[in-house]
Amino acid sequence: MIDKNKIPVGIVGATGSVGQKFIELLQDHPWFQITALGASERSAGKLYKHAANWFQEAPIPTRIANMVVSECKPGLPCKLVFSGLDAAVAGPIEEAFAEAGYIVISNAKNHRMLDNVPLLVPDVNPDHLTLIDDQKSKGKIVTNPNCSTTGLVVALKPLQDAFGIDKVSVVTMQALSGAGYPGVSSLDVIDNMIPYIGGEEEKMQIETLKILGQKKGNKVDFADLTLSASCNRVPVMNGHMESVSVKLKSKVKKVDVLKAWQDYTSEPQKLDLPFAPKPPIYYFDDPRFPQPRLHRDLGKGMAVSIGRLRDCTVLDYKFTVLSHNTVRGAAGGAILNAELLVKKGYYED
Amino acid sequence: MIDKNKIPVGIVGATGSVGQKFIELLQDHPWFQITALGASERSAGKLYKHAANWFQEAPIPTRIANMVVSECKPGLPCKLVFSGLDAAVAGPIEEAFAEAGYIVISNAKNHRMLDNVPLLVPDVNPDHLTLIDDQKSKGKIVTNPNCSTTGLVVALKPLQDAFGIDKVSVVTMQALSGAGYPGVSSLDVIDNMIPYIGGEEEKMQIETLKILGQKKGNKVDFADLTLSASCNRVPVMNGHMESVSVKLKSKVKKVDVLKAWQDYTSEPQKLDLPFAPKPPIYYFDDPRFPQPRLHRDLGKGMAVSIGRLRDCTVLDYKFTVLSHNTVRGAAGGAILNAELLVKKGYYED
Amino acid sequence: MIDKNKIPVGIVGATGSVGQKFIELLQDHPWFQITALGASERSAGKLYKHAANWFQEAPIPTRIANMVVSECKPGLPCKLVFSGLDAAVAGPIEEAFAEAGYIVISNAKNHRMLDNVPLLVPDVNPDHLTLIDDQKSKGKIVTNPNCSTTGLVVALKPLQDAFGIDKVSVVTMQALSGAGYPGVSSLDVIDNMIPYIGGEEEKMQIETLKILGQKKGNKVDFADLTLSASCNRVPVMNGHMESVSVKLKSKVKKVDVLKAWQDYTSEPQKLDLPFAPKPPIYYFDDPRFPQPRLHRDLGKGMAVSIGRLRDCTVLDYKFTVLSHNTVRGAAGGAILNAELLVKKGYYED
Amino acid sequence: MIDKNKIPVGIVGATGSVGQKFIELLQDHPWFQITALGASERSAGKLYKHAANWFQEAPIPTRIANMVVSECKPGLPCKLVFSGLDAAVAGPIEEAFAEAGYIVISNAKNHRMLDNVPLLVPDVNPDHLTLIDDQKSKGKIVTNPNCSTTGLVVALKPLQDAFGIDKVSVVTMQALSGAGYPGVSSLDVIDNMIPYIGGEEEKMQIETLKILGQKKGNKVDFADLTLSASCNRVPVMNGHMESVSVKLKSKVKKVDVLKAWQDYTSEPQKLDLPFAPKPPIYYFDDPRFPQPRLHRDLGKGMAVSIGRLRDCTVLDYKFTVLSHNTVRGAAGGAILNAELLVKKGYYED
């Protein structure tokens, strides 16, 4: 059942919600094949089906269900690991793997802001990947941003390239799955919403600047734009919605903004990476769209949907952005990172 | 059962969702007593309990249930009518009542922007009431703003008074009841939200300027601030949430902003109007608050709740506002308007 | 773009919620290809994308989006039509098509209980198909049952075959999509449920007896079991859940009941019909399962899920049944009917 | 602020979800006044407002907010304690209080089925109270049943008295608050429901028999009826719905059943207990009713609502029952128990 032509990969944090999503998305991946599952001591030694409280809609892939879970320590039969670890434990574990020579594709926040760690969205800043050349360890760590940042930077990048961006004001309406499982109590969000997600606004405000920054030598010059984020939790399962206003650096027409999104294509599409959405951006003319339930799965959950472009009386333009938080904004984004890294020759047998 | 000491009032549009809320809120009102119910031809002649598809949580008050519904034409046994009519029909009906000498307390948008019609929020612009002196009809029309405008202007007024306001950027997350009944299909909002409410952004952007404007002679000089609104519908029953950013006209400290809200008291409290919330504004230190289900009913649904005051990197300050859309933002707000009008001597037996 | 090797089919009631589901499910069907779309006069003449308020999660298939909608009258370029018409109009329209020589695969209730019309669930009563030999019209009408009946009869059939069934008590918890679009108002089901669905209990109680009945000559001898149904609407998008109790005609062990379901395979599987789920029934050992969101899509929405088999102190056994109401219980079930009919030679070019 | 004329009472498990409900409901109680709050070691010594994660809709009563929390040990300044303790710890704590002379009004399951402990619903089996005469401890323990049992027995009691009951089949659709806080993850019940609540069916099946049983000497002869329960969790905040079928011991007309409910009045109404709902039962003619959001608060959450009485083809009659699970089915029911006990002279200063 093991395909010798595929790259063996491990998943650490395999029983958690991001770990489960890695498993779901990597099933039938054309390049990668899961050969190791790492989780906490409590789970180690058990069959995955007994260790995980699986709550994805599709059943556990049979081969995975019957794999034995290992501890999250170097020694796994692979050279590339996806990390869906919680930030509380991700730091030292990911570092241990990197020291031991593994490529670590991490979804955790711990190493995102280090100078020599790429905070990577392949559609936006693929050139940042080479920051890892500066990592001293035998292995490497690559990270993807916070789920609410990803959709935003994909929507902003074409505008930055074409017109320059001065200011961004964004209010998010984020899905429940972003809080993990069990996450938000049903008693807190039936007929209700919560105007606060701890640490989220800070993450959006700083990560966006790094991702949209310019690589200069071994470092990223952060983008010189100002961003203000207000983050809300709404009773939606999956799909983060964002009401965005931007002030551009040049005076442009609405039609030019639309064209910037429409024409946008980037490295993952050019390299024909398996997880690259084609097109990367959908724009909707119907003012009721995009909506989470209807459009979060476009491009297999990897596309970013935009709608309602209109004048803003305070900044220049307003629009709505939607992206799938656990696919585009977490496991799927990390897989795209791994694909870019492999295509660029960083993975060696 | 009729109390001779109370002012007889009618409700036109009595079977609709705002009409039902008028009935619910006017039950046991110390000054007003419902003596007439007007609805469409189809309902006229029926007992109210047979004409209305009542869907409030409390049952129909018994006396009201057995009243016969009239058509929406002058001739009702009262001199003051509350209008919960749909905008599609409210225009000529409200005018006919005003011509016939009735005081019309309207929740409809039709006459809001006319020079001699007060767009009234008694906590904010009670002095605008005298605009009606310029109405030529025997009766008068007074209006209250759109449900998403009301909470916002109550939160902004103390800041305008104390510091001046330059710019406002607001993103709303509005409740389902704002769309009336049956309104939004359940298939559109289970595990979903809608980034669009037709006409809502335009209403917020213009109404706010009139309400916060200065009365000069017989007209209102609109406030010289810029407001940008983005309106979203979320799966919450009642209670509009708003993420607000403001740029003030003077440099102030966070503590000054808090103090402006804390110290705020206005005409309805001074006049001790029955529907005046005391205090008019609640500020929450807990960053998770306010939340719709927990705080929409504060002050019997008439208070405005604010939380999460913090720096904004694009404008000056950001905060969250909540108000009950069908009470504070519709029927309750209209009742407070009627109370002010009576207290100011505009109602004569 | 038209594939000459496929059977051309029409959809009447194509803009409604069942019509949309037919379009979604027939896309890429190996045997059928949509060549005609019929809807009301109001829609006729328009492009489908302009006539329909499409609200499925996947976008309208491009070819369908640009087809011109016809009226629901014979003359459509096909010989087989799927009817997603509302019961209010389905009667005469379906009859007109049958008179004109069309095979009508109907989801409407109008003709279900006629002696010579099969009320068909191919996994349960495929032999009833030949009832149409008795239809006098040039064309034929075949019907599928009410959405809440379908899941139940698939679960009951293996028990009836193996042990005989004496009594059934069923309480349903039905999804919102069963009421069509816009259907149930969001104000009626957020933080709420409704213990009533007009006509539903009567349909379940009689349809089940016909489907589980024995064909004797040209008629069906209704099954001699007693069924009591209580139908509730719950705030779930798709997937009808049913709490079922049965009294069997013979004394059996729990393990025998499980085996009856496990071993069950029926005509659609034997004939390898494209929409036949394999297996037709999933049984879950985990007492928390099945659940609508997790399991409604098993077998592409055509499988029936069962769980929680346990002793009943009033009848013999209790269990939980789940089936997808708009796929298995409506459009998908009708497509399976058409497949059986074609396989059995009733369709001629 | 302490009212010397009221009976001082304590609440153990005061920070939990039932404890919070006790506090909310006892505010302004005419007989009782909270003088002690007990919780876990972790909370002891803190102000209640700092110890509790309060999530009720009304704010914490000011006096309570500033009370210091004690440990759950005898020594509290009161002689009567309400127990909202979790079953995992309730056993020994409640016994310690009873040993020390306290009257314990418990909502926990631990002592419900003991011979000398009344499982009390004052509208149903007030005479069972005297079972406590047999308790050897200086103090006494009285319990109320599981939240899903309470509504059912109130609906059944008038039928048992009038006609005798032979069999009951009940399927519940239970609210989320029944699982406590945080309880059910939002990811498990948005667009979903769960057909299983651990231990619930067993509790309903046995508790009902004790409550409807006859006191004979010092014991209860369990009712000789058979009950089968199937318990489901649905996405509703508060209010348990139940689809019930009954077989009566005598042949009766529908009108007689209705009359039995209508005429029903019981001990709490006769004794004019403060928490006694008047009437105890509401019957709705509208087949869409009762519904949780609309009717759970009738009689301040203490009334039981019934609707849809109709023939059952398997047993005799079917109907729908609704009761508020955290009020009638938990804290409110316990308070009614305490009121009965005081009225009957079991409380001494």
In the CATH hierarchy, what is the class of the largest domain in chain A?
A: Alpha Beta
Structural class of chain A: alpha/beta
Find the CATH superfamily of the largest domain in chain A. Answer: Dihydrodipicolinate Reductase, domain 2
Uncertain ranges of chain A: none
* Mass-distribution shape of chain A: globular
Largest beta-sheet characterization of chain A: 6 strands, parallel
Helices and strands of chain A, in N-to-C order?
EHEHHEEHEEHEHHEEEEHHEHEEH
**Which CATH architecture of the largest domain in chain A?**
2-Layer Sandwich
Biggest sheet: strand arrangement of chain A: 3-2-1-4-5-6
Q: What oligomeric arrangement do these chains adopt? A: homotetramer
Number of domains of chain A: 2
Radius of gyration of chain A: 20 Å
Supply the number of helical segments of chain A: 11
CATH topology of the largest domain in chain A: Dihydrodipicolinate Reductase, domain 2
Number of strands of chain A: 14
What average pLDDT do the residues of chain A reach? 96
How helical, in percent, are the residues of chain A? Answer: 25-40%
Distance between the termini of chain A: 20 Å
Secondary structure layout plus pairing:
The structure is a homotetramer of 349-residue chains.
Chain A lengths: L6 E6 L4 H10 L5 E8 L8 H4 L10 H4 L4 E2 L8 E4 L3 H13 L3 E4 L33 E4 L3 H17 L1 E10 L11 H4 L10 H12 L2 E3 L2 E3 L4 E8 L6 E9 L5 H10 L3 H4 L10 E4 L7 H4 L8 E8 L5 E7 L3 H17 L6
Parallel strand pairs in A: 1-2, 1-4, 2-3, 4-5, 5-6, 7-10, 12-13
Antiparallel strand pairs in A: 7-11, 8-9, 11-14, 13-14
Helix pairs in contact in A: 1-11, 5-7, 5-11
